[in-house]
Design goal:
2 copies of one chain form a homodimer. Chain A has one domain: Methane Monooxygenase Hydroxylase, Chain G, domain 1. Helix content of chain A is 82%, strand content 0%. Chain A has 8 helices and no strands. Chains A, B: Keywords: Cytoplasm, Phosphate transport, Transport.
């Protein structure tokens, strides 16, 4: 009787962590998507909302961390239950970073507002953002099901984001070379593109954490989280 | 007798975690410093060493995480002992990220090798790197002493890194505008400068974790981790 009571209280605590992570995920997604929308439409009010929402996400991460510690101390879980809790802490950390990246993009809205974002570059950013948002939405759905296969599938999809990011990186360099007056704006857009690419990396991290929760191991093989733009040289090769 | 045996085994495990973190810190520092040296001296062999060392740091983070989990499960520590272990996990995470940032800088060495790094920009990067390395060395020393006052002092020093980074950001923009042939090189240097600035942020995170380990609370006041370059507009203001 006492045991089932404890088990059930533990399950309640796990459910609480899972629910809070899902809420964090929803907010992080919205912040990341809104930051790119604010950038493209020069919407400083929306950017300001993203910036101020970041404190909610930070507080949620702290709350999950503290709740997780209390749960470990009170329930003394072993093996897979402990992995669930450690996994929740890690995922909350990744989602908090997604919010930070959205906030960093939002803070650049003021700097590019006057010149605006050229249409072709806006399309590239929107496409990159859409891919990253899909990764994030999907990985949060997979977290709910704890499917190892689906987590691995998401992890492998990060290649596409990296290749779209590298194209956009080249396009931004070309843009600056052709019209040096766009250098400041394009520099901010380069950092925004990098922010979005890194959101994809955090989705990959979350996929790896799901794998770890389910199996107790790290996924095999090289992490498909390579930023290929680092080797783009002055010759454009 | 049994209790003192358990306490002593727990202390041994804590010592192990602290020692491994100190080793991780040494390697992360070296990678970060070497990556900037490799960049400035176009030393691709040194860059390659930084890139390959990253797997050691990744493995160390995993080892600390796994050891920490085993310790929590076996010893069921409460309050401050639990914070020690959670803190070790967080700090290992920050050091792993420092290594990633060094690796990202190292991967850009090939891209800027042919053009080289202009002398005035190299000086700026070296200065920024020196400040970030000092923060990291000092915060790791403070971790050994668990001094809350010293942790807070380091946290406040991050402002200086941010202001040096913002100056370098402006200088790089000016450089590109004056000579558009340097756009590709300067873009990579912008990302390298940002990498170094973020190493300073991780030192700040570690300082906050030390505060948390010692007190069980988060430090008060706004985080002094602001990247002021985000608002640098096309007018250079």
């Amino acid at each position: 009787m006492a045991t089932s009571h404890i088990v059930s209280a533990f399950d309640e605590e796990l459910k609480f962590l899972t629910r809070r992570i899902s809420e964090m995920g929803g907010l992080a997604e919205q912040m990341a998507g809104d930051s790119v929308r604010a950038l493209i439409s020069a919407d400083t009010a929306l950017a300001q909302k993203v910036i101020s929402d970041d404190v909610i996400l930070d507080a949620a991460e702290r709350e999950i961390g503290e709740k997780a510690i209390v749960t470990i101390a009170k329930r003394q879980p072993m093996a897979s239950d402990l992995r669930e809790i450690m996994g929740a802490i890690r995922i909350a950390g990744d989602l908090e970073r997604v919010g930070d990246l959205g906030k960093n993009t939002a803070k650049r809205v003021v700097a590019v507002r006057d010149t605006g974002v050229p249409r072709s570059l806006a399309r590239g950013l929107e496409h990159l953002c859409e891919l990253a948002m899909n990764q994030l939405t999907d990985v949060l759905d997979v977290y709910a099901t704890r499917s190892v296969e689906k987590a691995n599938a998401i992890r492998e999809r990060d290649d596409e984001i990296d290749s779209v990011y590298t194209s956009l990186f080249r396009e931004l360099l070309t843009y600056m070379m052709e019209d040096p007056r766009t250098i400041t704006t394009c520099t901010h857009l380069l950092f925004c593109a990098k922010n979005i690419e890194r959101i994809g990396d955090h989705a990959t991290n979350i996929a790896e954490t799901i794998f770890y929760i389910a199996t107790g191991a790290q996924p095999e093989g090289e992490r498909p989280k390579e930023d290929l733009s680092t080797s783009v040289g002055a010759t454009g090769k």
